[in-house]
Amino acid sequence: MVAMALGVFIIANDITAMNVALPAIEKDFDTSVTTVQWVVNAYALVFGVLIVTGGRLADLFGRREAFFVGAGIFLVASLAAATAQTEAWLIAARAVMGVGGALIWPAVLGMTFALLPEEKAGLAGGLILGVAGIGNALGPLIGGALTEFESWRWILFLNVPICLIAIAAVYFLIHQPRPETEDRKIDYGGIATVSFGLVLFMVALDQVVDLGWGDPRIVISVFISVVLLAIFGFIERRAGAHALVPRDVMSNTAFSAACVAILFVSATFFSVLFYVPQYLQKAGELSAFESGLGLLPFMAVFALTSFVAGPLYNRVGGRIIVTLGAAGIALGPLLLSFGVKESGAIGGIIPGLVVLGVGVGLFYSSATTIGVTAVDPSRSSLAGGIIYMFQVAGGSVGLALTTTLFASASGLISGLHIAFRFNAIAAAVGFLIILFVVGPRVKPPTPATGATDPPGPAAGN
User: Fold this and answer.
1) Is residue 459 classed as helix, strand or coil in its secondary structure?
2) CATH 1.20.1250.20 occupies which residues in the chain?
3) Which residues of the chain have pLDDT under 50?
4) Sign of the four-CA dihedral 325, 327, 331, 333
5) Best exposed site among 77, 198, 254, 344 by fewest CB in 10 Å?
6) SS3 (DSSP) at 445
7) Exposure pattern of 150-161 as b/e (b: 16+ CB <10 Å)?
8) Are 275 and 416 a contacting pair, CB within 8 Å?
9) Does pTM top 0.85 for this prediction?
């Protein structure tokens, strides 16, 4: 389990650590903020696009094997990024790191759920999301401290020893066999169409703030991406058992509804990570490191709650936990909208950050467990990849829409009011999906052991 935790930590830490280092990177390479933002975007984009493919490959060829390949790619690319001499070099290395992360994450999820018995599935989900929360929470602190007192390059050098320890731990301690199948045909058509479709869509969302929704380049990109994703659906139906996303996964109601709920609530998570530091730095005049500390009430509570959510899931059932979590994610941004003030005081936003941290910790671990256990165990890595793709897609789409609304406001504080209230509305939609669609399909805990029987493939349909 420690080996799995290390694999999750390097990915989660890297997602947030580089954000606070962007001004220093911009200065070192004497480049623009629109260019340097791709240090973060390139990693997130490639990671989000390829994670479904990574999950399918892990299920087909073995999760240990996928982990070793992914960790090796991540290690080498981290070294390349840490020694980058130009911004183009750095951005390209970060994109390759995304390839490694897309192989690591679903492989870790699959191995973790396979390590524990079915009645402890909630513990597996809680562990993964708890460690992810710690990595996310420490990311801004580690990144801010290293950038301020040493160099942003050390954020990337730090990945090397962690990767080596994780690879050694998995090699010596995890002995799960490869899938017993001779048929490992790869759905190249599905991989190509979904990857290019998602890339176009996410790049369009990234550029919409500068170009506007009506710009022909945005309209054409979104149209082509929709066409490619429609073609992907057609290819998957014809591919049958070899499909990138097999029919038994696509038609599983519990799984697909959990993914849609995650899509709606993820805008809040991304928006808070982006806008709270902006608020603290611009209105509160805090430094990058201090604004990273300002996220602690959210990230620390998120991590702690994720660990607690696992045992609670097994004791009281997934339905209660996931519903409470979704409610917290809907209420949190509403409290934040009332807490932001012209003074930039952090005290006003702490209640919203704490409520949101509890909600995120309860929701993501339980929703991940519900989604992964709703499908056949042989599909667990793929299911984990799809779930995370919906989280990234929901966050990207939601952040783009939030930023559009924020930009239309007359000032920072009024923009934040509008942004956080929009997030609350979107999360409320996810809450309703959980309440009326996902929740009723989650079995209650069994009286004998107090453990939840995860819904099998039949129960989820």
Assistant:
1) coil
2) 2-187+244-441
3) 448-461
4) positive
5) 344
6) strand
7) eebbbbbbbbbe
8) yes
9) no
